Amino acid sequence: MKKLAPIVIFTYARVVKLKKSIEALKQCDLSKKSHLYIFSDSHKNKKEKPQVDKVRKYIKSIKGFKKISIVCRKKNYGLSENIIDGITKIVNKYGRIIVVEEDIIVDKNFLNFLNHSLDFYKNKNSVWHISGWNYNLNLPLSLDGYFTKTMNCWGWGTWKNRWKYFEKNPKKIINTWTQKMINQFNFDNTYNFFSQIIRNKEHKINTWAIFWYAVIFENRKLCLNPTITHSENIGIGKGSTHTSNIDEIFKSKINDKIKKKLKLPKTFKENNFARDEIKKEIKKMNQKKILKKIKNFLLRLKK
Predict the structure, then answer these.
(1) Does the pLDDT at position 291 exceed 70?
(2) What backbone torsions phi and psi does residue 123 show, to the nearest 5 degrees?
């Protein structure tokens, strides 16, 4: 591997989650050779200050990486602005980046998969995003990764010459996208990703990842996904900004089987088999949710 990407981790006030994330990263073979950047957002209010202080005390004690650089925000940026600003600064400096948030844990293969893929596809402009995460599926694929047009952000990487196109402009998207584009963006109308664009415009949420997906989608580029997930979100539930509850298909579990040699796809098009399998599982999930709503409604009628 010619060049290791810097790892950038974004944190706020969940020191327990952050410790698990850091400890998982330290188990990767390449952690001792990697430069770790930590962006610590400031507190929103006095109530949350003690939790932020605990995070900042802990990050000063971290060891196990080639170099550690800490950025402590002097004001509260919020999750979206903290991440966008941090990614832009670091990827512009190094040309490539690996991004993790405080509630993501990774397996021992994560840094190897991300760095190898960033090297492998650096000159392939059809590939814009490398994901360390995959859906909770057992896909019988011969390769260690496959391409889709949808973006997953729970541990991922990209390059400067791709990220430069990032734009967060919900109004522009809503005013210019056709219904056909929206249907495709919504995984052929199996999952309503576009609703996040609308809620951002209405200031009901303030997120960033859906816009990175939108940029990749608009430019008709590809995202590499691992056949077996290398990352896991442990932040779902109380205390999470945007994932207080999540559907079963997204609850992937990592494993620690070491795999040194990777076989990556060289055909630059979406894997239709994988896409169809994901759609099938999403449809099953949607049917279960509908049945659950009907059951709950009937139970209320009996009261």
Answers:
(1) no
(2) -105, 10
In a domain, 80, yes or no: yes
Residue 224 lies in a domain: yes
pLDDT of residue 36: 98
The one-letter amino acid at 196 = Q
**Domain at 185, CATH number:** 3.90.550.10
DSSP 248: G
Q: Per the domain annotation, does 2 fall within a domain? A: no
The SS3 assignment for 19 reads: helix
Pairing, β 96-101 against β 104-106: unpaired
Its domain, for residue 152, covers: 7-302
For residue 83, give the nearest of 106, 101, 67 by alpha carbon.
Answer: 101
Closest CA to 11 of 241, 211, 254: 241
pTM: 0.90
Dihedral Cα 178, 184, 114, 37, nearest 10 deg: 40
